[in-house]
Design brief:
It contains 9 helices and 10 strands. By secondary structure, it is of the alpha/beta class. The protein has a 10-stranded mixed beta sheet, with helices on both faces. Strand 1 (27-35) and strand 2 (41-49) form a beta hairpin. Helix 2 (95-103) crosses helix 9 (312-330) and helix 3 (129-146) packs across helix 4 (166-174). The chain is globular and about 55 Å long.
């Protein structure tokens, strides 16, 4: 039995290494740490160009990556993209996009939002959850520009952001959107959707119509020059005028069969409010989870199952290229 178990483990390890996400150009990776406004530390996954030799070494987001751990950064005046994950996500939620951007000469920083990640849901029902996410994106940029060991390789004039779901909401607030969370109780009563169930399950005061002090303050960050977002949750809180201060170019993605973030009450509001500032992509056959990184050896159905013949890996090859092209166009040197 021991021999069989050993053989099985070795086979799994070999498979993971053989199927590791890889890049044409060498990419370095490290997990570092910053501190939010409440003094709580949060992890940041960082991908970047390097001259060191990568190898299948790092297991992140359910899949092995071929990277050079803690290698030196290669290059100067490199653009920075911050990635904000969705509820119960983490730095690995968009690892394939991070690798793709790093392969193209970008530095990518993905914070693990405090109390709203796969390992810790302690802040899921808190009143200030969403404003804390907003602050952590800004704190990540501060850290990368001032404290990260490769900070002198970053071009502070070329900073972008990407987010999915709650991460898309977070990125929108970081580029000027001002939500009215007082809309949540009425909306959840008259037009309930997935986020309403999530907030109710976590006993969040945000669904309580008697709550007067929402405790949220959202600050924009003028350092972010472009935003790519997918399936922006809670976008109904931006109606009617909450998006009027968004001045940067926005790339907006929507899955045609997304049952978690309904188009009519979320993506449509963003698309119509931003007008010619938005580059819109509707993806046939895509659901909400389709925007997460393609699954590897560990493929839990809740986040990996697709309907019909939708091929997530093929779609991401196209999407990642389009996101890169958007940032290249929107953050010109």
């Amino acid at each position: 039995i021991f021999a069989l178990l050993t053989a099985l483990v070795l086979a799994v390890v070999a498979y993971a290494m053989l199927t590791a996400m890889s890049t044409k150009n060498p990419v370095g990776f490290q997990i570092t740490q910053a501190t939010n406004a409440e003094g709580k530390p949060f992890a940041i996954g960082v991908w970047y160009p390097t001259d060191a030799s990568p190898r299948p070494t790092t297991f992140l987001g359910g899949q092995m990556m071929s990277v050079a751990p803690d290698a030196a950064v290669s290059g100067k005046n490199l653009p920075l993209v911050v990635i904000s994950h969705g509820n119960m996500g983490g730095p690995g939620s968009h690892a394939d996009l991070a690798l793709y951007l790093a392969n193209a000469g970008y530095i990518v920083a993905a914070p693990m939002h405090v109390g709203d990640n796969y390992a810790d849901q302690s802040a899921a029902g808190s009143v200030n959850l969403f404003s804390s996410r907003n602050q952590e994106v800004r704190a990540t940029i501060d850290f990368m520009l001032k404290q990260w060991r490769g900070h002198d390789s970053i071009n502070s004039q070329r900073i972008g952001a990407f987010g999915l779901s709650a991460g898309a909401f977070t990125v929108l607030t970081a580029v000027g959107a001002q939500p009215d969370l007082g809309i949540v109780p009425k909306h959840c009563k008259t037009s309930p959707e997935f986020v309403c169930d999530v907030l109710a399950f976590s006993k969040s005061p945000l669904v309580n119509s008697d709550t007067k002090n929402w405790g949220n303050a959202f600050q924009s960050d003028s350092r972010i020059k472009a935003a790519a977002i997918a399936a922006p949750g809670l976008a109904f809180t931006f109606a009617p005028n909450g998006l009027e201060n968004v001045q940067v170019p926005v790339q907006l993605w929507s899955g045609e069969i997304d049952d978690k973030v309904p188009y009519a009450t979320n993506t449509k509001i963003v698309r119509e409010a931003l007008g010619n500032k938005v580059e819109f992509h509707s993806v046939p056959g895509a659901g909400h989870m389709s925007f997460l990184a393609p699954c590897g050896l560990l493929a839990p159905p809740a986040i990996c199952a697709e309907k019909g013949n939708f091929d997530r890996k093929t779609f991401h090859a196209t999407m990642n290229a389009d996101v890169l092209a958007f940032f290249e166009k929107s953050m010109q040197k």
